[in-house]
Amino acid sequence: MKNVLIIGCGLIGSSLLRAIDNKKIAKKIFIYEKSKLNISKIRKLKLPCEITNDFKKIIPNLDLLIFCTPLGEYEKIILKINKYLLPKTIITDVGSSKEKSLELIKKKLKKGIFWTSSHPIAGSEVSGPEHGEKNLFYNKWCILIKEKNTKKKHLKTLSKFWKKIGSRVAIMDSKKHDTIFSMTSHLPHLIAYNLVKTATDFEKQKRYDLIKFSAGGLRDFSRIAASNEIMWRDVFFNNKKNILKAIDLFIKNLHSFKRDIQFKNNKSIIKKLIETKQVRKKIIKLKQDINKPDFGRR
Amino acid sequence: MKNVLIIGCGLIGSSLLRAIDNKKIAKKIFIYEKSKLNISKIRKLKLPCEITNDFKKIIPNLDLLIFCTPLGEYEKIILKINKYLLPKTIITDVGSSKEKSLELIKKKLKKGIFWTSSHPIAGSEVSGPEHGEKNLFYNKWCILIKEKNTKKKHLKTLSKFWKKIGSRVAIMDSKKHDTIFSMTSHLPHLIAYNLVKTATDFEKQKRYDLIKFSAGGLRDFSRIAASNEIMWRDVFFNNKKNILKAIDLFIKNLHSFKRDIQFKNNKSIIKKLIETKQVRKKIIKLKQDINKPDFGRR
């Protein structure tokens, strides 16, 4: 590739920038970034890119355009760049929720332009270009969305792109994607946020110093609950339908756990507590985590 | 100290054994362990101890006796050792739930014998003597329980003991302990179990291969939900009163989150998502976790 444009250079955008540079995938990487703070960070870090807002000049010559902003930013930017886009331009994004966002994209994008959506299953609780990692995508799944109107050629090029930076590629439609990730990613984040919120409310109520003793479990949730609030608001709102269902299933199960504790249902609770271990074994077998005990980080 | 007896040599018992040996705190460490599998592991690992069931000979000469079994085992063992216990024997345990277990201990323990309860805030999702770590307690809190009938001399000796193996000691009564840890430890574990259970149910319903894509958040919960089921059943049952209240508060908050998503209440959800970040900052300031982004373990 010659020219790549990354729109939004936070954790994911700057990790892609580093990965593309590291693997020498493009000759030139352009960055569009609206945050002045991020721009000054990128300059200070001397990231190998050219910061630009000259869409007119750059977009017609692009091989790849990647949206790395929160979902809520897409519309505004699409309307800005629409007139410069060409049918050959390969456009993708890295958003965590697909069905609703692709509906919006289809509505707003100029006719005859293709958008091929990606979702790299990688990230962290920190935000900003200073935290980017060139190996962030290495050995991680990247989901590519294939719908009726997906341009096969673009899908193929994108698949090669993600593989080059080390990802494993899986292809599915947006509906399946949003169902799966409502459960494996969106609900876990919501639950972590809710747990930390509950602990905070409780601390205020009781006036006990709880956080000091958070190493027993709360600590790990607090890390997940420190993730970027704008990104997650957008994900929750965009995948509303599936997340609401996931919450209901979660609450139903929690009521069942509550009954087990209330009435000391030994058999029932042990069955639940053992079942979850099998999932852990599967996760390790599938190399989604390492098989090393965690004693807390030092 | 001359002689220490550890009853139950799993993850915590064997970590204590290693820590005591490492810091040369006792001349001789005795182990009582009912699991034949664990006994053979202890022998294979050549842990510096003597495995015994000769309570009659050993208990009268003990400086310290530590229960490291699940809470549900206490009664049986107390009844077995009662007749050999002396008022000078310092007895402690490492259980995660205190109020109900101390009630039971008071009822079952021979009159004139003192029990001073400990709770080291340290552990992992793995079980068994092969996973023990001599530094498990280093820089971690250990809660000592002080009640009306607590023998001050014993409390003082125990406090010194935990400090010697590197712990920071905090003293509180069992009621306060159980309230705090219902929120910082028991609820988080229950929630992790419930999340993994919900994902499993969902996978069966949808016949999608979810676990493969668990790196987006579910993975981290699955680790916590792989903890020992007997230990956790006992903790949940013993701290029932506080845990049921914590579940109710959690569900109330989750309903509020659900409404925010359902009606796209921007202000309200952003407030929630930002609040939790403050907790993270506090946790890092209090050195309950390190300030290093987590990109998944490799």
Topology:
The structure is a homodimer of 298-residue chains.
Chain A (H helix, E strand, L loop, with lengths): L2 E5 L3 H12 L5 E5 L3 H10 L4 E2 L3 H4 L5 E4 L6 H8 L8 E4 L5 H10 L9 E3 L20 E5 L6 H13 L3 E5 L1 H33 L11 H7 L4 H10 L1 H23 L3 H20 L13
Parallel strand pairs in A: 1-2, 1-4, 2-3, 4-5, 7-8
Antiparallel strand pairs in A: 6-7
Describe this structure in words.
2 copies of one chain form a homodimer. With 298 residues, chain A is α/β, with parallel strands linked by helices. Chain A has 2 domains: 3-172, NAD(P)-binding Rossmann-like Domain (Rossmann fold, 3-Layer(aba) Sandwich), CATH 3.40.50.720; 177-285, 6-phosphogluconate dehydrogenase C-terminal like domain (6-phosphogluconate dehydrogenase C-terminal fold), CATH 1.10.3660. Chain A contains 11 helices and 8 strands. In chain A, the strands form 2 sheets. Chain A has a 5-stranded parallel β-sheet, with helices on one face. The first copy, chain A, has a 3-stranded mixed β-sheet with strand order 6-7-8.
